[in-house]
Amino acid sequence: METKRLNVDINVDNGKSYAQAVDLLNNGEVVAFPTETVYGLGAVATDEEAVKKIFAAKGRPSDNPLIVHIGTFEELENYVDHISQKAKLCMEAFWPGPLTMIFKAKPNVLATSVTANLDTVGIRMPDHAVALQLLRQLRKPVAAPSANRSGKPSPTEGIHVEEDLNGSIPLILDGGITGIGVESTVLDLTLDMPVILRPGGVTKEMLEAVVGPVSQPSHTEQNSGKAPKAPGMKYTHYAPNAPVYLIDKEEKTIAMALETLHQKGLKVALLAPENLSHLAADWFFTLGQKDTNEEMAVNLYHALRSCDATTADLVLATTTSTEGVGAAIMNRLEKSAGGKWYSADIQI
Ligand code: AMP
Ligand code: MG
């Protein structure tokens, strides 16, 4: 299959490109498009065969449910049983935006593979001109996970989607670099106390200012069986080919690590804030200005992907505080590294 990548930024006349995307979706095909978080790979969420093509193109396990994207508030009640007061407050405050809310699903409306047979569904309204235009022209719900091969870092540029899915999808709407760079927050609102199943663009602090206490179980708590889960969080994610090791962003610690690794004859790609670019790594990929979690979120997946164009034996990635969007960054980095931290005696 030939994969077209069409530029739909605001400077081009893009009516025909949207029309093509809408036609493809109406005909049971998948289309990649930008959102404010990362690029999504969409299919009409009520079309079982179309949704299956998402799982096939990504190589995604079938027990990992998809987020449904909608373009208007009114649509929500078509797909969910009950909209609680807290959900209404969250919608008002954060939609369109990077917040996915989990509701009890109306039975037999959405394709069963969207919800992976759960009785709940995750829904959000993206805050991106291209995504909203597409959804509003289509006037149907779109199931869309990130548009990468399963396990790889999520795409933050149209070209990343092409790298992963060229030949297996018909169309990429290319709207440039995405704004936030990490995926949406997944918030379970089916319980009295809302639970963050996946940290993301909307932080715990932002949510609590609107609905009061929200719980954010740690990785260990989520895996202990006591807390509710986002099924997708158990899979390896966001990983470049070379193994990733986490390291503190202390200049001295990193300099010593590089020396030790070089003595062992290993080539190192370093992902770190800009102020550490002078260190003697074999490749350096910036995570933005020092101490700015927002910039780190924007740069993270690009930097992780860039490692695959090197012959590095390992990747050292600096960590950050879990304040604000830092919680989402550390969640992704820990998964990317499989929880591994650098130590002088590591064996590659
Ligand atoms: P992705 O589509 O790759 O951004 O991943 C979507 C995330 O949302 C995964 O971690 C899913 O497991 C989670 N998710 C989607 N729907 C549900 C649901 N109904 N209940 C719990 N988690 C969900
Ligand atoms: Mg994903």
UniProtKB/TrEMBL annotation:
Keyword Transport found: no
Binding site for ATP: R60, N64, T120, A144, S146, S154, R198, Y238
Organism, as annotated: Viridibacillus arvi
Annotated region (Disordered), positions in chain: 213-233
Xref: PROSITE patterns: YRDC
Recorded catalytic activity of this chain's protein: L-threonine + hydrogencarbonate + ATP = L-threonylcarbamoyladenylate + diphosphate + H2O
UniProt keyword annotation of Oxidoreductase present: no
Alphabetically ordered keywords of this record: ATP-binding, Cytoplasm, Nucleotide-binding, Nucleotidyltransferase, Transferase, tRNA processing
GO cellular component, one term: cytoplasm
YrdC-like domain residues: 15-202
Protein name: Threonylcarbamoyl-AMP synthase
Function: Required for the formation of a threonylcarbamoyl group on adenosine at position 37 (t(6)A37) in tRNAs that read codons beginning with adenine.
Pfam families (UniProt xref): Sua5_C, Sua5_yciO_yrdC
Compartment(s): Cytoplasm
Ranges of compositional bias, category Polar residues: 215-225
